[in-house]
Every structure is written in C-alpha cells, then in structure tokens.
C-alpha cells in the first residue's frame, strides 16, 4: 500500500518552479504554507540577492521544511578555468543549501560545452566534479542528488540520462555505503519511458540512493519539451505505478510537484495552481 | 579503418523523407540516381496509389538498389479489431517491400493507444505482432528491422527506445540465429545519447542484427524534435565515431541519410539537398 498523500501533507512538497517564479520567495512561502503543503523546494533564482539566512527563517517560521534545493550550475566546460569556476559555483550553492536547511542539493549536471561533441568527456568531468562536491556536501551536511534527465536534454542540459547510469556513477564516486551521501532524484517526467525502470528503482532503493521523487505529467502532444509539462493526471505517465515502485523499494521521502508550464500553469494565480496540485496529488499520483 | 564513403557511392543511400516528399517518386528516383547515390529508401507514401511493380522497375532501371522500405503502420491498439487491422496493414506493406526488392522492412512500432498509460502493454502487443510479421517476412524474403526511437517519441510513436531493448526483443522473438531475419535499424539521431551505445552496438554486431544505419544530426537548439533534424556535421552528434563502432562490429551495409527538416532542407531544391548530403557523407559521417 502506498502512502495516502491526502492525509500526509507533511511529505507533499511544491517545487517553486511550479509557480513560475511570478512572485518573490516570501510570497511563495506564504502561499505554499497556506495551501497546506508541508514542504517546498526553492531554486537558486529564488534566493539570488536575498539574505539566505532570512529566507531560511521565513521558511521555518511558516512551518515548512525543504525537500531539496535546485539546482546545480552546469559542470562541463571547454577550459579548465571555466570548469573550476563551475565547481566553485556549485560549492557556493551547497553552502546556501546548508543555510536553508535543505537535506539534498539537486544536480542537473549539464552536458556538451559549446563546440564539443564529446559526451563521454562531459560525463568524465561531471563525475570528477561530483567527487569533490560530495566531500564539500559532507562537510556542510548536504547530500548530493543526481537527477538523470530525459534524453531529449542530453545535448545541452544533462549528459546523465538513465537512472541506471546515475546509480553506476554513485557507485563509482562513493562506493557502497550504509549511509550514502550521493544518490538520485527520480523525476517521473524523465524516466517514465525507461524499459528498465522497475529494475533500476529496485536497485536504487536497495542502495538507499533515492533522495527525492518529482512528479508532473507528459502531455500528448507536447508543444515544448522544456516548458510544456503537465499537471499530474493530465498526461500519459502512470504516476501511481511509479510511486508504488519507489515506495515498494523503501522510499519514505517527499513527493515533490515540479511542473514547468509556461503556457498554462505559470499563467494562473498561485493559489489556483496550488489547489490543483493538492487535489491531483491525491487523485492522480 | 572505416569505409571511405566518397569512393563507395554504392553503399550511400537517400531516404526519400530527406527530400520532403516534394516530388513524385519517379522524379525522386531520377534525382537520387543523377546525384550519384547507389541506393534509396522509399516510404509507403511514395508508393501510395502507385503500381508498386512499376516503381520497382523504375528504381532498377535507374541503377539503384533499396536500403529499406519505410515504415510500419503503428501496432498497438485499444481494441483487438484495430490491433488485427494494424497487423494486416503491416503484412500488406511487407508484400510491397518484397515487390520493391527491399531487403528490410523498417518498423517504427508505435506506442500508447489513445487513453492508455500502459506502455508495457503496448510493448507486449508489438512483440506479439512482430513474431507474426517475422513469419510473413520470411515467406516474402523481407527482413524485419526494428528501429528504436529517441525516448522523446515514447508516448506517441515508439514504445521501443533503447538499442538494448530492441536486441532483447529480437532474442525473445527469434532466438539466436546464424542468419537472423529480425534485427535493428540504428539511427544515430535516436541513440547517440545512450551511455550504453558502444556496448550495445558490439552486441548487435555480434548477433548480426544490424540491418541498417541512418544518419542525420542533432541541432542545438532543436526547434521541433520531429522535423528539425540537421545535416551531418551541423549538430553535436559524433557521427564518425558511431559509424566506426558499427563497422568495427562488422556492419557492412548501407549508410542512409534520413533528415526530417521542415524549415530548412525540405524547402530547398532536391538537387541542392542531395549535393550537400553527398559532401557531408564524405566530410562528416
């Protein structure tokens, strides 16, 4: 039996991207808390030019916890200098995650630098960087969450695409661990199509490397693969089956709604989107 | 060492979709032959309402061979009646492939029927159908080529996405064979991102199940994932490395150019597109 989300608001999280960044983070925090969610996941752009400690206090005062902090600056670079700068930007973001109280720093790793066709080279850079960021995260008490992205983003956003690949990287970077500090963020939008999904979710659970679960839906047709994601239930992903697989594999963490929807949900009032998220978490997740 | 394509026009093929279906098949045949290609791969829409035997004769008279015949009507269906109709439409297309003299029938298998979220069910339907089509193809002397499509098409065009998955299906449907009649069509647009590509190409070669190789390029940015594919060399796919992997695995078949490009190549004269294909087969493939 999967957890009943209607009676567990404490594990229901709103990724702030779902609300389209139409309001300052303070208003978003209030809206999410008012709507009865127990968690949120802010982005770096939410905290840009803000006092991160004050944002953290605001979140705590609203009675909310963080499900994660989004997301890493891309890693791969054409020069060693840019590569080091990217790693340093990630360390800074991990520091902010620690101040915010985020248990996990969500990494969208990047892919081919301009002019490159060497995706294996990009993967190598990311793994090297992650080893360093894992150490940094350990010192800060922040875990590293590798999010494999749908292969449609393989050229420009993530050279990491398969869940199995993310787990292989975790094994290479950290080795087996009873208390893993690097793991995976499983977003059903990115992995629903994978014929090996059941196998790999079981493996991830066994290794205790499921650090987050994101939900939205794949619309048919999809007008824009980046910003035309759907509300749970409006598309073709069998989200309840994927959640059941995760929970069957031992996952007890948050269920986080992350919907990029430039033409639809981002144009609606935050309260309406939040109400719909809440309803569809119960009915279609 | 890979084959020098400039000195082997006989293995260089033009998929007629590359030319945007802007002229009747007769004109396309003449243009492809005149441009110095040794092969072409027509689509069902090229032969619709045509006398297929006459088209076959025209192709032969032009000195061309076929690298394949595109492509299967989709298999999965919501009702048994539609499913049977889809299988029968595929048998008819295989009959036409035999008349045309195509060595392989290219299958893009389809995916979720309207209203369905059951991708495993769709996969099951496809495998069952392929077993039947394999028998039909054997009788007609036409091999079955399963083309795994990029996962961006998993909802509506192909529940078959990974090369490893295609090879698993071949093994299940036919078993090991010294002279396989079902195999895979490897299109670099669909598989370039796969972290297991080298492993799976080697496996496909070992099993003698590489029945075709399609080339085009992945543009950054991609405006439309269906019809904004690029000329070889204009994108980020390391096509020469993929071709080297196939040839290293024993592939000796055609190199087929298939570019869906509504806003660019389809708007140019056929002769210009063909000239560019020829040049880029030598320089960037």
Query: Looking at the structure, what is the overall shape of chain A?
Result: globular
Radius of gyration of chain A: 18 Å
For the biggest sheet of chain A, the summary is: 8 strands, parallel
Number of H- or I-type helical stretches of chain A: 10
- CATH homologous superfamily of chain A? Divalent-metal-dependent TIM barrel enzymes
Q: Greatest chain-chain interface?
A: A-B, 29 and 29 residues
The structure class of chain A reads: alpha/beta
What is the succession of H and E elements of chain A? EHEHHEHEHEHEHHEHEH
Which structural traits does this protein have?
homodimer, 285 residues, alpha/beta, TIM Barrel, eight-stranded parallel beta sheet, 10 helices, globular
């Amino acid at each position: 039996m999967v957890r009943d989300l209607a009676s567990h608001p404490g594990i229901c999280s709103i990724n702030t991207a779902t609300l389209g960044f139409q309001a300052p983070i303070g208003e978003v925090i209030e809206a999410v808390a008012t709507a009865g969610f127990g968690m949120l996941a802010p982005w770096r752009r939410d905290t840009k030019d803000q006092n991160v400690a004050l944002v953290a206090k605001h979140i705590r005062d609203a009675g909310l916890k963080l499900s994660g902090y989004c997301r890493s600056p891309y890693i791969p670079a054409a020069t060693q200098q840019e590569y080091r700068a990217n790693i340093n930007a990630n360390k800074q973001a991990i520091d902010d995650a620690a101040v915010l109280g985020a248990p996990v720093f969500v990494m969208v790793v990047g892919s081919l630098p301009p002019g490159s066709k060497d995706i294996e080279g990009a993967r190598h850079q990311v793994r090297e960087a992650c080893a360093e960021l894992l150490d940094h995260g350990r010192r800060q008490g922040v875990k590293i969450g590798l999010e494999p992205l749908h292969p449609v983003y393989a050229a420009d956003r993530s050279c990491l695409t398969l869940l199995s690949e993310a787990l292989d990287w975790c094994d290479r970077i950290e080795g087996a661990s009873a208390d893993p500090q690097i793991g995976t963020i499983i977003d059903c939008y990115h992995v629903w199509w994978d014929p090996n999904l059941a196998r790999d979710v079981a493996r991830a659970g066994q290794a205790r490397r499921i650090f987050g679960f994101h939900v939205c839906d794949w619309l048919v047709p999809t007008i824009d693969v980046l910003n035309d994601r759907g509300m749970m239930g409006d598309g073709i992903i069998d989200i309840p089956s994927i959640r059941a697989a995760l929970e069957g594999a031992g996952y007890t963490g948050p269920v986080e709604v992350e919907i990029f929807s430039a033409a639809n949900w981002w144009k609606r009032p935050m309260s309406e989107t939040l109400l719909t998220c809440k309803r569809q978490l119960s009915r279609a997740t």
